[in-house]
Design a protein that fits this description.
single chain; mainly alpha; 1 helix; rod-shaped; Secreted proline-rich protein
């Protein structure tokens, strides 16, 4: 039996314009939370 030669899938092109980086997402979530906690502790 003859199998076709294995070829790895071509790498997917990265979308830099629309895709949000994980670091940006984490900062968007954590910064407001830290500010809120700091505001509540100050009282």
């Amino acid at each position: 039996m003859h199998y076709p030669r294995y070829r790895a899938a071509p790498p997917r092109p990265r979308r830099t314009g629309n895709a949000m980086s994980p670091l940006t997402f984490v900062l968007l979530v954590t910064v407001p939370a830290v500010v809120a906690v700091a505001a509540l502790r100050a009282r």
